[in-house]
Amino acid sequence: MFIPLLLAAVVGYLLGALPFGWLIARKFGVDIFEHGSKNPGATNVKRVLGQMFGKRGKRAGDLAFFLDAIKGAAAVSFAKVVAAEWILNRSSNVSLEAMQITGLVFALIGHSFSCWTRFKGGKGVATSAGGLVVLLPLPTLVGVVAWVATFYASRYVSLASIVSAVALPAAAWLLPGTPPALAILATVLGVFVTLRHRANITRLLKGTENKFGKKPAA
Would you say 82 and 99 are in contact if contact means Cβ atoms under 8 Å apart? Predict the structure, then answer.
């Protein structure tokens, strides 16, 4: 059982570590670690490049979000393929859920602590969402609706992400048919994403958090 889990972990980490936001910003001649929140996540990429390059920069931020989400989905999908191959051909006792959870968790670790950017990275919202779309489509839809409603009501991306990180695992526990292991995974990821927003929470409480679409205060 150890070998397939190790494979899912290594591939998940390497997929998650792909620093798409940083690479996209570099194409525009921007070191994303020196601008905005100094975070290579899609939100900061979109805000910074949007201010510098207008609609073209915002589209680049959208692309960063899409690619970061694909990393999570790819890690889960790869783990599923490997698990199926291992179980069918080797009569292993490795479980499909264990493989998928391992793949997504390590993709999130790779995204947040990328070996390609000196172990700096994003907050994991897009990568988590991409993997959970594959694993828990209905609870993820609830999380997306919560994100959209909160964002358009407040214009705070960070607040929307935190509310979504709470709503998605709550839906996973409340909706029938969710495997307990996946509900636990959704809860752990929700806590992780919320903790990665600690600085944002502090700014929200102080009233100094930047609303999306507005330039940061000088």
Answer: yes
Cβ-contact 139, 116 below 8 angstroms:
no
pTM, full prediction: 0.87
Distance CA 78, CA 42 (A): 23
DSSP-assigned beta bridge partners for residue 114: 120
Q: How many CA atoms lie within 13 A of 138 on its CB side?
A: 12
Residue 114, SS3 per DSSP: strand
pLDDT-derived band at 80, boundaries 50, 70, 90? confident
Distance from C-alpha of 190 to C-alpha of 167, rounded to nearest angstrom: 9
Give the containing element (helix H, strand E) for 116.
none
Pick left, alpha or beta for residue 214 (phi over 0 → left; psi -120 to 50 → alpha; otherwise beta): beta
Query: Count of CB atoms within 10 A of residue 133's CB?
Result: 18
Task: Please report which residue ranges of 91-135 form alpha helices under DSSP H.
Answer: 96-112, 125-135
